Amino acid sequence: MTSISLPPIMDRSAVTQCLEDLRSAAACGKAIEIGCQDVEQIGQAGLQLLASAIRTSQDSGFTLTFTGGGGALETAARLAGMGDLLFGSPADASGDTL
Q1: Structure letter (DSSP) for residue 71
Q2: Which secondary-structure segment (H or E) carries 52?
Q3: N or C: which terminus of the chain has fewer CB atoms within 10 Å of its end residue's CB?
Q4: How far is CA 55 from CA 43, 51, 60, in A?
């Protein structure tokens, strides 16, 4: 298994670095674990990267898991309508998505 930890701020430069890390890990064909516990701020590019990683794992047949999600990452994902994709159904969906 390959582990990748997301940085606290997922800005454009962080997304570029994470993309390279994910490409390298995916090329090995092993399971990938993405640690999200440090994320304090994430924008559309970061969410798009995570959605792309999920799609790539599904298409390529390797396992992709997220650990330590919650907080800012989960809030941003749910506001963008991607909460279920990244975290499954919320316990209480009232007001979580647009």
Answers
A1: H
A2: helix 44-60
A3: C
A4: 19, 6, 8
* For the chain, domain boundaries: 2-86
> For the segment 14-32, what is each residue's pLDDT rounded down to a tens digit?
999 999 999 999 888 889 9
Residues 64, 43: contact at Cβ < 8 Å?
A: no
The pair of structure tokens assigned to 67 is 């650990």
- Count Cβ neighbours within 10 Å for each residue of 49-75 and write b for 16 or more, e otherwise: bbeebbeebeeeebebebeebeebbbe
Q: How far is CA 2 from the centre of its chain?
A: 15
CATH topology of domain 2-86: Transcription Regulator spoIIAA (3.30.750)
User: Looking up tokens 């962080």, which residue turns up?
Assistant: 14
Chain length of the chain: 98
The identity of residue 76, as a single letter, is A
Q: Identify any residues that bridge with 33 across adjacent strands, giving them in sequence order.
A: 3, 65
Residue type, 40: E
